[in-house]
Amino acid sequence: MRWADVELIPEPSAGTEGRDPAGAVLTGIGASPGTARGTARTVHSVDEFSAVTPGDVLVCRTTDPAWTPLFGIAAAVITETGGMLSHAAIVAREQGIPAVLGVAGALTRVTDGTTLVVDGTHGTVHAKPASPVAGP
């Protein structure tokens, strides 16, 4: 087989369409299977790592080896860049947590503190209202 014989298939524009027909808030590449619910924690740099608490959904532009410790406490990962062989995908699969990657504008479209349900199998992220606080 020669490269001239290979037809390139364009990648889908993951995450650029807003809501999908099923009501997903965000869509991207399902890079690590499973479903998790947690509080969105938007992280722009290593200086913000201390804001992530166990069970949070890590939302960031990209990851590299310095971000690996966060995968041990995050419930799921959402990144703006990356694919099936990216650092985030590999580490998420190793840790057994869902990951949706290639979500365009995730850092601006997800509000810090929002409750999210991340479906790494189907590449979708749904916002869920916070549970009401029981009053007297």
Q: Can you put this structure into words, describing what you see?
A:
The protein has 136 residues and is α/β, with parallel strands linked by helices. It has three helices and eight strands; from the N terminus they run ββββαβαβαββ. The chain has helices spanning 68-71, 87-95, 106-109, and strands spanning 26-27, 29-32, 35-42, 57-60, 76-79, 99-101, 115-119, 124-128. The termini are far apart.
Instruction: Please report the first level of CATH classification, the CATH class of the domain at 24-116.
Output: Alpha Beta
Which stretches are poorly predicted, pLDDT < 50 over at least 5 residues? 3-22
The structure class reads alpha/beta
How many alpha or pi helices? 3
How is the secondary structure organized here?
Layout: E1 26-27, E2 29-32, E3 35-42, E4 57-60, H1 68-71, E5 76-79, H2 87-95, E6 99-101, H3 106-109, E7 115-119, E8 124-128
Parallel strand pairs: 3-4, 4-5, 5-6
Antiparallel strand pairs: 1-8, 2-6, 3-7, 7-8
Short note summarizing the structure:
The chain is an alpha/beta fold.
Task: Give keywords.
136 residues, single chain, disordered N terminus, 3 helices, alpha/beta, eight-stranded mixed beta sheet, Glucose Oxidase, domain 1
